[in-house]
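Lecture 7 notes: from sequence to structure.
We start with the chain below.
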Amino acid sequence: MASREPGPLSRGEEVEAFLEIVRGGGPGLVHLHGPEGVGKTAYLREVRLRLPGPTLHIDLPPLEEAALHAVIEREAEAVLGSFARPERPDLLPLPGMGPRWSRLLEGVLVALAGSGGGPPGVLILDGFDDLVRARRRLPSELVEVWERVVRRELPVHMTMVTRGRELPDAFEGFDVLDVLEGFVASGDSGASGASGASGRSGASTASVASSASSTRLTRLAMGPLPFRTAGWAHGASDPLDAFRRWAIFGDHPAHLPKRPVGSKPSRPSTESLAASVIRRVLEPSGDLFDAPLRRLRGVVNAPARYAGILAAVAGDDRDWSGMAEALGGGPGSRLAPYIQRLEAEGLLAVRLPLEAPEGSRRRRYGPVDPFFSFWFRFVLPARSRLLRESPTRVWREAIEPGLDAHLDRWLAEAGRRWLANHAGEALPAPARVAGGLWGDEVDFEIVGRLENGQVCYGAVQRGSGPAGPELMAEARRRMDRTRFGIGRQARAPLIFVRGEPSAELRREVAREPLAELIGPERLMGAAPPW
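Predicted structure tokens for the same chain:
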């Protein structure tokens, strides 16, 4: 069966999703969100080139209220020419800029709608977070403006672009329609171990045309690149190299090797993995030397506590008490706002055991991006050493000895993402749910249930040497002790390895009719045709 993951670095499906929303007529309200640097603005530029109607895409800088008002007014006049601002005698003369914002935004939307005879117009407010910070009353003013647009049935769409998933409280009454939730990553960002099989749309694009209403808001979520795409795009020479490069450099688009705009990734790289890490991450002049700190400083004012949390989970996922202990003890409630902010910024994953209730306290916390795990585990403690010693020596003495443990941790995560998004390539059906189990019974890093009811249990190889039959024995032992899937005849052990499987392991897997051996070739798929 075909994989759910989109083609390498292709935005065709995502662009089509947005165009389908606009084709449904207007008015339409869209919320596009995703972490800093995942490519939201680049995606919208691509969308704008294919929109048939008038489009005003405003990149909002972090300025004060009056300056932002001037930016929008200037850009609107440059694109739309002279346009009328409706008189609003019903509005009270509030302090500051008073009704000028309502008049400006309504005037822009009316001008984009035009006479109503052509394709819908589109207003894109790129950086809506900064706009709201500059004018706290703006969301409620915008909702009032939108209600008037809906009453007049104007053929216009407005898109608000933010980093975080949540919009201000003024939008609480809106019915949210998730279209292609996590669409850039096709759902394999691994943000929750208890979710359904990722990669499915919250709604098909075909249903969007009938979704417009005064309280309907369509939400598009952009995430990291799919793990397969990222691994190969980092210049991998083979599937194992693709996994290793993903597990070290991660899946954030900004971490890909720099290349000319519009060109395809070069594959394979002529540079070894060690040489790439030394040049890009360990050299003080490397483009990724302090990339995690730059990302943190871009979204929070005081990054010290946030960096401490990310360092605490760099080596392994932690529960709440483990996190508090790693950070020096104290009331765990002090961590809550920091964890919530990191989760909102797409930097920290909050995971639940598979099929646990949403309010369960059996949560674990870990980094979303493998590169953050690698950097906070190995690079942050060695930054001063890198200023006085050779990066090659630091790699050899401080990083290489612990690299296997890091790769083991991310092999389990890659296995969960494979089961969620690619199970249909090797198993009888795609996954319905995929994640992990922990708590009162045996821990399983990878478990899932397929669409046909089959239950899968994953065992993960530790280390990079030959994989022996003890992996299969461990999978059987844990399967006998877990209640998940008990009573089902179709219980399948999945053995994930990155080393060469021994002949004994192959024979043990062959004895089990439903067992599957998942090596790098199956895990990472074939090299894209770049």
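Points to note: The mean pLDDT is 84. The first helix runs from residue 12 to 23.
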